[in-house]
Amino acid sequence: MIEFRSVTKRFPDGTSAVSNLDLVIPAHQTTVLVGSSGCGKTTILRMINRMVDATSGTIEIDGDDVATLEPVRLRRRIGYVMQNTGLLPHRRVLENIVTVPRLNGMPKAEATELGLRLMDTVGLDRGLARRYPSQLSGGQQQRVGVARGLAVDPNILLMDEPFGAVDPIVRAELQTELMRLQVTLGKTVVFVTHDIDEAFLLGDQVVILQQHAVVAQRGTPGEILAHPASGFVSDFIGAERGKRALRIVETNGSRVVVDADGRPAGVLVDGKNGS
Amino acid sequence: MTWLGSNVGLVAELSLHHVQLSLLPIVVGFVAAVPLGVLAWRFKLTRGLTLTIVGLLYTIPSLALFVLLPPLLGISFLSEANVVIALSIYAVALMTRSAADAFGSVDPVVRRSAAAMGYSSLGRFWAVELPLAGPVLLAGLRVVAVSTVSLVTVGVLVGSRSLGYLFMNGLQRSIPVEILSGIVMTVVIALAFDGILVLLGRLLMPWTRAETTSRRVARRLRLTVGGGS
Lengths: 275, 229
Ligand SMILES: Nc1ncnc2c1ncn2[C@@H]1O[C@H](COP(=O)(O)OP(=O)(O)OP(=O)(O)O)[C@@H](O)[C@H]1O
Ligand SMILES: [Mg+2]
Description:
The structure holds 2 protein chains of 2 kinds. Chain A is α/β, with parallel strands linked by helices. Chain A folds into 2 domains: 243 residues, P-loop containing nucleotide triphosphate hydrolases (Rossmann fold, 3-Layer(aba) Sandwich), CATH 3.40.50.300; 31 residues, no CATH class. In chain A, 35% of the residues lie in helices and 27% in strands. Chain A has 10 helices and 13 strands. In chain A, helix 5 packs across helix 6. The longest helix of chain A is centred in the middle third of the chain and has 18 residues. Chain B is an all-alpha fold. Chain B is flat and about 65 Å long. Chain B has 9 helices and no strands. Chain B starts with a helix and ends with a helix. At the A-B interface, helix 2 and helix 4 of A face helix 5, helix 6 and helix 9 of B. Magnesium ion binds next to helix 1 of chain A.
């Protein structure tokens, strides 16, 4: 479990990125932080592995205040998938994946074995092992990023818009893959996105953030969709709700489902006649 | 041409010595410039100071340096150390700016990502920042190598034995072939240094070739696709 207690982050230039955040991130679940650009999502993630130190307040991982933990050691036991993969351009795919195990002193042969297995796990062809990141497609690079995040078998996996830079099809594929992985791995995943659909798809818990990381609502996707806590939340999920709010219109005896703009989305059929 | 026939030994000996005189300043330039470059790149406070000092050093004419150094260091005008030290100073001056640029060229995203994975600052320097600064460092070192090889010739003015001797002697005795031999051998040595550096770069930085190849492949693919339509 990760717990934020009245956490505030003000950058030296005066930018207030996070103000007085209280948040509990339960273990072995996926918590998705969602909010518009600049609302402090990345800053929240970075405070967990101490890439950024909070100005005030405490962050605890399983009861340990991270401020008392040594940053380098802390980072080596937390998986981090960066907003734009952050792969090392001068290291081959396999070397990138096992960077942290190697830093922790894993022998090379063992690391190679592990790296190849991780490539299988995230659906990367083993034949790509000796390529450099620049020789991969965007989607492949993102998979390498995920594999690297999993390499130390961390309890905590921080994912910052890990599927941001790929087309919708590859994105859906990666999302499915992540859900499949999470069923077996049961990590404490903190996932950042500004795509509310992605948040609802992946999150056991979804946290909707306003500017300065003020929590607008926290709950399961169902709870949030059913009972938006405020105008901000309805607005935020609103654009998507237009698509989701479907109405039934009778025309010539058949029932057509239309969206908010009145465009037909499909025909309503009975379960028994439909097949 | 008769001159060359009877002086092959001299040309070879001077060439060898020329190489020896060039080598040390190039190595010193590189080794000293890397930490200086880091100083200029990492800390705002030292950046201006470092770059100004090396900038000024480079503007001192080489002859002036040959004259200034001996009394300062307590060495003889005619000693080889005089030439080697002066050229080392130029090499450092030239290379430091390249080194600062080289470290500046490392993608901050990659640096941050390395830190996030748990590299210590020193570990990150050796494993990530130095190799990624490599291509720009190499470009700088190639300039330093060529410029040092050509500056070594000037050392003849303070009595050091290099290919510069052939220019001086050839000029005084009006032997064009001798002057020409000096020029050709200087160019050959400069090219050899450059070639070796490029080769070293390929060996030590294989990823840079992968990057250019993938770019080339991408371009070729685009061309083929474009041509087909
Ligand atoms: N190092 C920094 N120095 C100063 N301000 C910063 C720094 N890093 C982030 N900020 C500011 O803090 C705020 C929150 O930034 P953050 O990166 O956490 O946003 P985000 O929610 O991740 O946005 P995005 O969706 O665009 O990635 C922004 O206003 C940003 O400009
Ligand atoms: Mg961000």
